[in-house]
Amino acid sequence: MAAIKEIEETIVEEFGYYDDWMGKYEYIIELGKSLPLVDEKYKTEENLIKGCQSRVWLYAELEGDKIIYTADSDAIITKGIIGLLIRVLSHQTPDDIINTNLSFIDRIGLKEHLSPTRSNGLVSMVKQMKLYALALKTKML
Amino acid sequence: MTTVTQHKTVLDIQKIRKDFPILTRKVNGKPLVYFDNAASSQKPQSVIDATNKYYSFENANIHRGVHTLSQEATSAYEVVREKVRAFINAEKSHEIIFTKGTTDSINLVASSFGKTNIGEGDEVLISAMEHHSNIVPWQMICEEKKAKLKVIPINDDGELMMDEFHKLLSKKTKIVAVTHISNSLGTLNPVKEIIAAAHEKGIPVLIDGAQAIHHTTVDVKELDCDFYVFSAHKIYGPTGVGVLYGKEELLNSIPPYQGGGDMIKTVTFEKTTYNELPHKFEAGTPNIAGGIAFGAAIDYINSIGIETIAAYEHELTQYALEQLKTVPGIKFIGNANERASVISFLLDNIHPYDAGVILDKMGIAVRTGHHCTQPLMDRFGIPGTVRASFAFYNTKEEVDVLVTGLHKVIDLFK
Ligand SMILES: Cc1ncc(COP(=O)(O)O)c(C=O)c1O
Q1: What is the rounded distance in angstroms from the CA atom of residue B9 to the CA atom of residue B314?
Q2: 3-class DSSP assignment, residue B218
């Protein structure tokens, strides 16, 4: 698996092909459709990231020393965005996930999704992904 | 609302739009189409100027100084109280209490009225379409007093079930609190009938006018409501200012809400005597600049006429409903016969959030989500809606932009 930074670069490159927002969002919607979906049995209240706008379920498990994330949402754009996060952070080690500082969001022009009013925004998703990494790391010890 | 259709539209919208500087803005490279007026309306230049002028040349604390500035600020602030009185046709200007907004006004009534009038086993009656602001304060006082919150149900069109309302009114009911116009559905409630029925049983009524005050003539004397509450920011005024109208006798009979400066007559460590209305309910330095700017907002509305505004908004809403009907898969949430310029809808199985993000990209500001009415969304079994809400500075051309935008949304997500 490529390192987090490398995957980020690839994504930035991919998004570079689109010079208008329509193209970008069409791509995000496509990504949303291929999101690694969380198993129905994990779509529980506990795994729900709560917010005002759309619902997001996030689940993580260990495979060896790597973390595998799965997710779902009732909004497609949200699915696409979490799909991007999963592409970057899934199959990485807990330490790499905890220590990373993601830059691609800003660079592909999705900064507006970082704003606190988009309550299910990226901030809470990234935070939740890091929390999972921390929790699973202690399990590994 | 029943009379509005008789007024002919005489508004020069393009001229009016020039009074609102924000309407020249571009958002994401597109001319702003602001359809989130139910959340907060935009401000005319005169309101912005009033704030500016106050801080530049008039600033001083009120009700306390003998110096010129303080006296001028006090009169300017008190003039607004009189303007509000006239605007809603209250009997006396001291029946107008300035608050921070609708939410603050309802909390005041729930707390002060509740303290002396609600007891164990009593009931507070609200409706299924209330904003969280007109639910939670009552829930809190009910919990404290071991009283019960009762809810008037609605039908599938989003109208109050009036026969159920009449059945729910009982000896135990201590107050009825309902919204004049629903912020999620646009429904205009038969508040006059509600007030009359409650009064027959000696029960006071609070009307949440947050969505009504700018869309329809409000005459508290004619309504005979006991409390009427609204926010300045939804009526082209500043944020942080609101109104509680209450009948003098009732306001006198309930205890103060907060303690502090301005609300007292004399203070000793043994006992404090409270000031008279309205000051009894206005502890501390108020939002003076906001109050004065609110006065400018009322002047602005009066210069056009609320009935002219209502007539135009009615026409625009009818147009929008007609045009939106042509959007494939659209489903309106709320189909009340009597309605204001708020339209909530869903597009097939497209999530409101997805629609809102794409519309924003096209410069169109709508609200998506539950609109602070979660119980209402549960009633319809939906997570939320897309809501377009109009003001008199909106145009039919903007409605067309929304319709085109919705077609694009559908193309993207199909
Ligand atoms: C019907 C209704 N009640 C109460 C409120 C709360 O108003 P504020 O937030 O200004 O206190 C709103 C605002 O959205 C509303 O629409």
Answers
A1: 10
A2: coil
Assign domain B48-302 to its CATH architecture.
3-Layer(aba) Sandwich (3.40)
- B2-36+306-413: which CATH topology? Aspartate Aminotransferase, domain 1 (3.90.1150)
For the purposes of burial, counting CB atoms within 10 Å of the CB of B221, is it exposed (0-12), middle (13-18) or buried (19 or more)? exposed
When pLDDT is cut at 50, 70 and 90, the band that residue B97 belongs to is: very high
pTM: 0.93
Helix (H, G, I), strand (E, B) or coil at B204: coil
Q: What's the total number of domains in chain A?
A: 1
Mean pLDDT of chain B: 95
Residues ≥6 apart with Cβ < 8 Å to A113: A81, A105, A121, A122
* Contact predicate B184/B384, CB 8 Å: no
Dist. CA B40 → ligand 1 center (Å): 9
Nearest to B395 by CA among B312, B332, B311, B286: B312
Complex ipTM: 0.88
Q: Is residue A34 helix, strand or coil?
A: coil
Domain boundaries, given as residue ranges, for chain B: 2-36+306-413, 48-302
Per-window interface: A 8-47 vs B, CB < 8 A: 21-22, 25-26, 29
Least confident of A119-123, B210-214, B345-349, B355-359: A119-123
Residues B285, A14: Cα–Cα separation, whole Å: 56
Residue B25, pLDDT above cutoff 60:
yes
Residue A123 has a pLDDT of: 79
Report how far residue B236's alpha carbon sits from residue B225's, in angstroms, rounded to the nearest whole number: 24
* B210 Cα–ligand 1 center, Å: 5
Expressed as residue numbers, the domain containing A97 is 4-140
pLDDT score, position A114: 59
Equal CATH topology for B2-36+306-413 and B48-302 = no
Beta strands at B330-332 and B342-347: parallel, antiparallel or unpaired = antiparallel
pLDDT-based confidence at residue B3 (cuts at 50, 70, 90): very low
Task: List Cβ neighbours of B253 (8 Å cut-off, separation of 6 or more).
Answer: B116
pLDDT at residue B2 tops 50: no
Q: Does A52 touch chain B (CB under 8 A)?
A: yes
Residue B246's beta-bridge partner residues?
Answer: B227
pLDDT score, position B145 = 98
Confidence of residue B45 (pLDDT cuts 50, 70, 90): very high
Ligand 1: which of B98, B207, B211 to mutate, most ligand atoms within 8 Å of CB? B211
B382/B347 Cα distance (integer angstroms): 12
Q: What is the CATH number of the domain that holds A111?
A: 3.90.1010.10
User: Which region, left, alpha or beta, applies to residue A122 given φ > 0 means left and ψ of -120 to 50 means alpha?
Assistant: alpha
Q: Does the pLDDT at position B7 exceed 60? A: no
Chain A residues inside the 8 Å CB shell of B370: 52
